[in-house]
Amino acid sequence: xxxxxxxxxxxxxxxxxxxxxxxxxxxxxxxxxxxxxxxxxxxxxxxxxxxxxxxxxxxxxxxxxxxxxxxxxxxxxxxxxxxxxxxxxxxxxxxxxxxxxxxxxxxxxxxxxxxxxxxxxxxxxxxxxxxxxxxxxxxxxxxxxxxxxxxxxxxxxxxxxxxxxxxxxxxxxxxxxxxxxxxxxxxxxxxxxxxxxxxxxxxxxxxxxxxxxxxxxxxxxxxxxxxxxxxxxxxxxxxxxxxxxxxxxxxxxxxxxxxxxxxxxxxxxxxxxxxxxxxxxxxxxxxxxxxxxxxxxxxxxxxxxxxxxxxxxxxxxxxxxxxxxxxxxxxxxxxxxxxxxxxxxxxxxxxxxxxxxxxxxxxxxxxxxxxxxxxxxxxxxxxxxxxxxxxxxxxxxxxxxxxxxxxxxxxxxxxxxxxxxxxxxxxxxxxxxxxxxxxxxxxxxxxxxxxxxxxxxxxxxxxxxxxxxxxxxxxxxxxxxxxxxxxxxxxxxxxxxxxxxxxxxxxxxxxxxxxxxxxxxxxxxxxxxxxxxxxxxxxxxxxxxxxxxxxxxxxxxxxxxxxxxxxxxxxxxxxxxxxxxxxxxxxxxxxxxxxxxxxxxxxxxxxxxxxxxxxxxxxxxxxxxxxxxxxxxxxxxxxxxxxxxxxxxxxxxxxxxxxxxxxxxxx
Length: 667
What we know:
With 667 residues, this protein is mainly beta. It folds into four domains: 3-125, Immunoglobulin-like (Sandwich), CATH 2.60.40.10; 129-301, Immunoglobulin-like; 311-455, Immunoglobulin-like (Sandwich); 460-666, Porin. It contains six helices and 40 strands. The strands form seven sheets. Strands 20, 22, 24, 25, 26, 28, 29 and 30 form an eight-stranded mixed β-sheet that branches. Strands 31-32-34-35-36-38-39-40 form an eight-stranded antiparallel barrel. The protein has a seven-stranded mixed β-sheet with strand order 12-15-10-17-18-13-14, with helices on one face. The protein is elongated.
């Protein structure tokens, strides 16, 4: 038995890929071209796709850059060059439902002889259907954002006005930049601009009288908004728009009678993985020298694999503080008919996270664009809630063409989607939540999408406290002196006020909390002191002062204290959204804020005993004291954000044991 047989016996997976054509990946992707008179016919040799076992049949999608400012998304396109010369042709491919690596981008230098040129330009189907949103300026993409790969954004403009195009990427609402600009085509004389001068930008914005705003995400959403500006409003609008992005690139465009296309290359960083299954938005702005601007927003889902059937969340890293105020979330479910025939009925069974309320469903837009079945139309949509958390949305009597149909040239026409918002339930646990969709095409088995997962960003919650401090055991005092006679003492408890800081409390995980607060208390004391002495005594109804003996006096004192308490170590745990507990230790420093003393002397006079009161001056207060005390704490109420009632027991030894009843609010 040879070595290969041994390896096959013990490690059969080593030969799985070879047996199924994986060695084709070693074949470099190549472009072939053949001229038939003035038509250049392009084909590509690509690695054999490896489908996921039990999954859909994989297929390629294409973006051809013909090197002269024109492009196509056909598998084997034809193109007519109007001028002879050398052209660099590039093919960008995306492997859908594929389990293998993305093939390298093939390029080829094509020489066009004078006999192979045509007098009339022939535009591809992709170019003909490009300006579906506004007819002037639009963006499209060749792929979704897969971290570690790249994508192409096609910026198309059709205007006789000179102007500037701005591309805004990397929204600030996401934690890390995901797109890196790596270059673009300049077939139409595009001149890249430096954007360091903010005054120059404000000067451009001030001259804009209005804007047309549209949005798409393959296919077009059908959203169109017309805005009118004063000079101040224009500056404010564009300042806010540009300020919401981390990266802005720009270039000049010349006036032209035909549409101009620029292919912009963006690398996708691995850091974008932190927001997988979110949807980012790239915004393009065309500012003509005169007249209104055109703003186009392009939604780009972040994916782990290229699958045209997907569920995504607009922002997967969320603020718990904002969402707990019943803010809405935006979801998108997209699908593609990858068969040969039309799909007539499509049903989306959307399993929403339990944290979200399906009764708050609000449809934003959809494709195919049909009306509600309540209008009694033949082609329509309807939806209902199934069970506790499943939303069933159905397209009835439509005709969504298949991507493999021979007469389909616009791939967007084979895709559909719904965009909708939904709100969280009143009880919102601070933990990740995820949803998924089962897509039914007619009577076929369902296609299950990815999980669209929402997670909460790490944040901090300021806390304010107010309550009552009660000693269970009086602290020892250093300011009472050594007196044998018993005293009548009274401890008066006081209020407490404080602030704290903690992470927005995670769901069923330990977390820390720091606090700084102050409380007051006071001691009053009455004590009889037996001793002989003399004092100066003013005789009533006269100005005479004489020295008089006394045998005892009563001393009444009141001492007020302020305690500052720092809690550097406090570990908490939320058992649910209504009850939490904590353990920790606090350091405190006690200040003597005031001390008042009054004496009542029992005088020995010739005509009998009498009493007289005299206030005493206190030269200094007792020294401050430091202490460290452990505690246990319980909260009842809105343990994540909002109001709670707290009960804390602190053991202090000679520093006193006490309890605290307080109200707190986590902001």
